[in-house]
Amino acid sequence: MTPDAPSDSAPKLPASMTARDRLVIYLILASAFVVMLNETIIGVALPKIMEELRIEPATSQWLLTAFMLTMAVVIPLSGFFMRRFTSRQVYITAIALFSLGTFLAAIASDFSMLVVARVVQAVGTGVMIPLLMTTIMTLVPPHERGKMMGNITIVMSVAPALGPLVAGVILNSLDWRWVFWLVLPFGLAALALGIWKMENVSETAKVGIDVLSIPLAALAFGGLVYGLSETSNAVRGHVPLEPWIPIVIGAVALGLFIWRQIVLQRRDAPLMDLRTFAQPGFAVAIGLMAVVVAVMFGSIILLPIYIQDGLGYEPIVAGLAVLPGGLLQGVAGPFVGRLYDRLGPRPLLVPATILSGLALVGFATFLGTETPIWVIIALHIAMSVSLAFTFPPLMNSAMGALTPKLYASGSAVVGTAQQLFGAAGTAALIVVFTLGSAAAVGGAGASEAEAVVAGTHVAFLVAAFAAIAPIVLALFIRRPASELGGGHGHGPGAGDSTDGPVHDPANDLEFPEGMTAPAGGLH
Prior knowledge:
Layout: H1 19-41, H2 46-53, H3 57-60, H4 62-84, H5 87-107, H6 111-139, H7 145-171, H8 178-181, H9 184-197, H10 213-234, H11 244-265, H12 280-310, H13 315-343, H14 346-366, H15 373-388, H16 391-400, H17 407-444, H18 448-466, H19 468-474, E1 501-504, E2 509-512
């Protein structure tokens, strides 16, 4: 019996981080914060954009849809970019494109130019998080990755939570273009620092790009994300295209894309290396992440609808109600990461998934037409805490199961899974919400607010049942074999046998309980 590790190459693990390594990581972290803040900042500005550019609400949504579709296409391709080009080249190109898109948005004279600007922004944004994850896996010693992955939680939770609030403050006294003008200096500063200080930390390979894989990836991931997103819109009103059409096209293209990558793997030149799924630790972690993202992201979308249409509050109240949870999730991220480094994934994931299930049950039970806002805030904080204790362990478990050769593809798979299953979860729960609301109106003659509450109750009830799956899957998550080192383990018979490693001083490595180092050590 041997630890779960890819057989194609042995991991080359860093022993410690240098000052240069920390500078590179924190530079990318800060840049990722800026681009993620931008991702949610435009939603609040849509009414003013519609008024000035004289466009309909359905048309204005393309500012969000175009951004989302570009991300859905770019993220799967990011693995190739990071294998083919140096991390310095990828970073500078990404932040330069983001800054260019921000500038074009600020000076946009019409709606078409604004959409193009958002697409350019999205290209830079789509590469940034996979680049950050790959860089952390490359530079950070395994026994410190939890703490550093926890910092990603700050980017992925605090930045999107602050976006609407920042936009609201800006728009209270300034034109909508200032949403972009005030973001631009941060992008340019990140670009200047990158040109000055960013050093290459990755190895490149002269891999060719398969021309057929690019349109297949665009149709597959773009079609599925667009179709799933339009499903939630279709049940609430007219959509320009029936959602099943892009979903079917995307599903067929996805099958062809997977077949093409398997063929290219024989030449060691896939666009997205699916050998990541051959590692059980990666596959289980991605499965758990997919369910969590689908359930949680779909649930979070419901809250603003309920607060505004069910309780009658203004949009700013809806934004402020979810702000404490988002901030707490980000603040807790590094703390959770340190716990991961000490305890491993399962002691964190099992309680976190149980807490998320209880929070969803709370939403299904306590939300009504006169629910105090503090109850909503408390339940959302509980859900946010559960997410804070979920994502760093999952990202560590998934990426730690891979060899360095597969880090770039693994990062692309993680980002793609979040996009796809986030859209799927949102679509599913919005459909359930809409059907529940319609049934309340048709069957009991409920008012609009009562119908919203009825739909919210049914949707959260479905989400609570779906949350059982993450609890079960969490029991199968193991600490990656590459992390069984760094002197943080304990001896045989102490603690949890799943996550507790046994230290082998001769090789400064650790092995799962019940295993010993091979005779003569490791070579």
